[in-house]
Amino acid sequence: MNLxxxxxxxxxxxxxxxxxxxxxxxxxxxxxxxxxAYGRYGIPVWQPFLDILKNITQRSAISHGxxxxxxxxxxxxxxxxxxxFIPAVLGSxxxxxxxxxxxxxxxMYFIFLGQLGMALGAGEGGHPYSGIATARGLxxxxxxxxxxxxxxISLAIQYDTFSIIKIVEAQQYGVLSWTMFTNPLATxxxxxxxxxxxxxxxxxxVIAPQEVPxxxxxxYPSQFLSMLQTNRGLFLAAKLTLFxxxxxxxATSIWMLFVKTFIILLANLFVSVSFPRYKPEQSIRFFxxxxxxxxxxxxxxxxxx
Length: 305
Known about the structure:
With 305 residues, the protein is mainly α. It has one domain (3-303). The protein has helices at residues 3-37, 47-56, 66-84, 104-123, 130-159, 164-169, 179-182, 184-197, 216-219, 222-247, 254-274, 280-303. The longest helix is centred in the first third of the chain and has 35 residues, at 3-37.
């Protein structure tokens, strides 16, 4: 193994660590802001870090089968794969990751892998409602993947490439060259799909925080829960970075990355605190109607532009 590859791996480890910390901190800040919007005080912004430290020191003697414990592994693999093939900061030696080795379709596969692995793990948990939650999650995932895929196809037509790096480079000619302005329909479809990916209201039908606590946060013990919590921070940062690269011109510095992704997250939060949660059938019908139609229109617009 040559020195160049070892250096690349070291830079990538630093990049992952920074984004995990950023994702967990952003999640804590969003939880605090959401609580204040609802008239509550909320948790400390560093609470996600305390939860991970607490859970990683615990042990469990309960066993639900091999797939139940592979679920968090698949979930973390999906988060890592999603982030590793995205250029977090364009032209940066540390934050470029392995973005030159993949394209947008590979990233989409990794997003799907994490969610599918979590569904397989939940299905072996033994809880009588696991099957219902799995069906809800996979149905909504299929629904929001459709408008996201349509927006990606629209970008491929517009930029004549599936390479995330080339899409970002094509947006480096000023703010008006961002996809947000050159292809607003694809941006709208992608943003609505991002709400579903992040499971923000009104599309938080899987965990349903206002109902009786169920799902991974209560069923997975000790280190497995800490693994899920760590991936929650990384996966959030990865999806925000992907959306920034595709629609908001990417980032040429780490500070620009933090600012842009935080603004996107604030926009997600604004929608989340403004609307009540949909029922599963309402959520699926919504994704298959409005953002899907907008995504189709964006493709037609790019074909005849």
